[in-house]
Each structure stands twice: as structure tokens, then as C-alpha cells.
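User: Teach me something about this protein's shape.
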Amino acid sequence: MLKEDLEIIRGCDALLKGPIETPVGSGTYESVNVTLRKALDLYANVRPFKSVPELALIPNVDMIIVRENTEGMYSGLEYRLAEDVAIG
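Assistant: First, the predicted structure itself:
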């Protein structure tokens, strides 16, 4: 992602982004998803869930799941300790 792109995004009231896959391997670019999360401090993945009474196996479910969005596997900080040992 170019710095100019990030500045344009910062100037917007909202951004609609579809799924993006980052190519694996050397010589590829940094994940656009991780770049946006870090640059815009998007640390929370908020997933509301509410059952539809006519369809639900468990009625009256109304919950919000909040998942950390910039650490762990999302951080993009994977590295190899040894030939058969890696940390993600």
C-alpha cells in the first residue's frame, strides 16, 4: 500500500473494503489488511450476533464477540527459530 493511498483513506468518512489475500513468499508486499489495522488503530474485530426467532435452534441469542485484531496471528510477525520450529 502506498503512503498516498493511506492518506486518501484517512481523509474519508468511511471505507468499504472487500476480502484481500496477500501473496506468500519472498518479494511480495506487506499485507494490506495488517497495514490498515496498524495505521488506523483498528484493534478490535467486532462481530454482533443475534438469533432470528423463526430460524434459530437457540432463540433469544443477542451477543457481541470482540476479537483482538492486531496481535497474534494478525500481527504478521511470523519467524523461524530453527528448521522445524516457527513462531506466529
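Now, about its shape. The first strand starts at residue 44 and ends at 50. The chain has one domain: 3-87. If you'd like, I can walk through any region in more detail.
User: That's plenty for now, thanks!
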